[in-house]
Structures are given as C-alpha cells and as structure tokens.
Amino acid sequence: MIMRCLCTVLLSMSLISASATEIHKWTDENGRIHYGDVPQGSTTIGKKQDEKQTEALKQQKEKELNKLRQRQQGYNQRNAAKEEAEEKARARAREKKKRCTAAKRRLAQYRRSNVMARINEKGERVYLDEKQRNKVLRQSERQVKKYCR
C-alpha cells in the first residue's frame, strides 16, 4: 500500500513538472498573436524559419513573374507577326488593285484604238496587222482576268 502511494505521488510530481513549463504569448509587427514555450527574441530559430519562408515566397513570386513575362513576350511576338502578315496582305491587295486598274486602262485603250503600233529595235514605228492586234487584245484580257479576280 505504501508502495502504491509512493508510486502515485512520484507519478503526479512528474506530470506536474512536465505541465509547469511556461507558455509565452507575443504579438509580432504585423499584429499576429503567437504562442510558444520560448519567449519572443530569446531564440533565432523562428526568425530563420521566417526568413526561409520569406525567401521561398520571393522565389515563388519571381517564378510566377517570369512565367507572366514569357507569356506576355510570346503574345507580343505573335501579335507582331500577325500585324506584319496583315500589312503584307494589304500591300499585296493594293498592288493587285493597281495592276488591275492599269490592265483595264490598257485594254480599254486597245479597244478604242483601230490602229496599233510597236517600236522595233531600230526605234521605228511598226504597225500591227489585224492578227497581231487581236493577239495583243487577248493578252490584255488575260491580264485583266489575272489581276482583277
């Protein structure tokens, strides 16, 4: 019985000493409340962990920023390529319209004219016969079809 009481007393004392550790409470500069068995500022372990977490967050944000920058750069490149292609298409359309107008003007001039002439190598004017004139008219009509589609 005495042994039993002694064991109970020893066990209770060990439990009391284990629960007798102090719990500290403090508020950080951000207004957050912290609890711990070590008072604030008495150890640098918490600070090191905070610094590691802060550094990890910085690295994560930097990675996200880099991804965003790459996506933006890709968008800008695609947009520039698209605008360049559109500008080339507009230039081709202007050139085609210009050629169409010139071909129509030549064809109208050839049809109005009864007599056609060419300048030969010697610089002399050579008049075309009916067969040659019809050939020139057909060529001019083909150009109108080609450029005015």
Structure, described:
Helices cover 70% and strands 9% of the residues. It is built from three helices and four strands. The protein has 149 residues and is mainly α. The longest helix has 68 residues. The mean pLDDT is 84.
Give the % helix. 55-70%
Radius of gyration: 47 Å
Count of individual helical segments: 3
Largest sheet: 2 strands, antiparallel
Spatial strand arrangement across the major sheet: 1-2
Low-confidence parts:
none
Secondary-structure class: mainly alpha
Overall, the morphology is rod-shaped
SSE order, one letter for each helix or strand: HEEHEEH
Strand portion, in percent? 5-15%
Distance between the termini: 117 Å
How confident is the prediction overall: mean pLDDT? 84
The number of strands is: 4
List the helices and strands and how they pair.
Layout: H1 2-19, E1 24-27, E2 33-36, H2 45-112, E3 117-119, E4 125-127, H3 130-147
Antiparallel strand pairs: 1-2, 3-4
Helix pairs in contact: 2-3
